Amino acid sequence: MTEQEARARFAAARVARLATVDGEGRPHLVPVTFALEDASVFFAVDAKPKRSRDLKRLRNIAANPRVCLLVDEYDEDWRRLWWVRVDGDARVLDDEAERAHAADLLFARYPQYSHMYAGDGPGRLADAPAVVGIRVTRWSGWRFADHRSALS
Amino acid sequence: MTEQEARARFAAARVARLATVDGEGRPHLVPVTFALEDASVFFAVDAKPKRSRDLKRLRNIAANPRVCLLVDEYDEDWRRLWWVRVDGDARVLDDEAERAHAADLLFARYPQYSHMYAGDGPGRLADAPAVVGIRVTRWSGWRFADHRSALS
Question: How far, in Å, CA of B46 to CA of B93, rounded?
Fold first, then answer.
């Protein structure tokens, strides 16, 4: 799969899985909704209990910025299988303008955020406990058609 | 979500995402088909080019046995979201009887393997480049109903 195709499939997906690693080398996984712009992927840690900023995924990113994202599609017809992986470096966005821009991108993709933040206006997501930006360092992709040896 | 419910949702899923970590602390993700038995999850690295045993996921497990698996379901109605995470320790199965047993479990769940290994008999998966066993150390799960504060 070309990098261009990997990027297009990733951009069209509604959910990705985020892998982070803690200070002791243990991996951690959560699903994330996201927005892609140029070479950056953004996700928010949305409204949750007060200690959200202390979430494992954020502690891990502080300890080790290297993250991985995966989008994949399962089908019982394995000839339709494909996945796209993104390697990158993550950081919590502290700059107000950056946070607001990322929040706008997320709002544009997910009308659900509007419901969650109803009554506070659409800028409210920028006040979420954390908005994270991932600088993409590598695109990888696979689809069954790349894997001819499986049936030979 | 209780551990029992997390386990039941995981057991019913057809695909999970596997996170491994390399010797330098960088995470890696691939989707895997799997079988669960007691406190073990099994997956195979199936027929691929000769160097499959040298796959990144296997090099990572050799360097760091700590892995994480995630099963999740996305829905545009976020009230239906849920995920289940498994933390565990992985090892490539070298014992013939263990490999054959894990292969039987995988064959029983995925008739697709029979097609891939057609002509060689159902024991053939045990000769796949690698069969990996993960000893589960922790079950975690989340569903929207656990997350009431999101809309409050």
Answer: 14
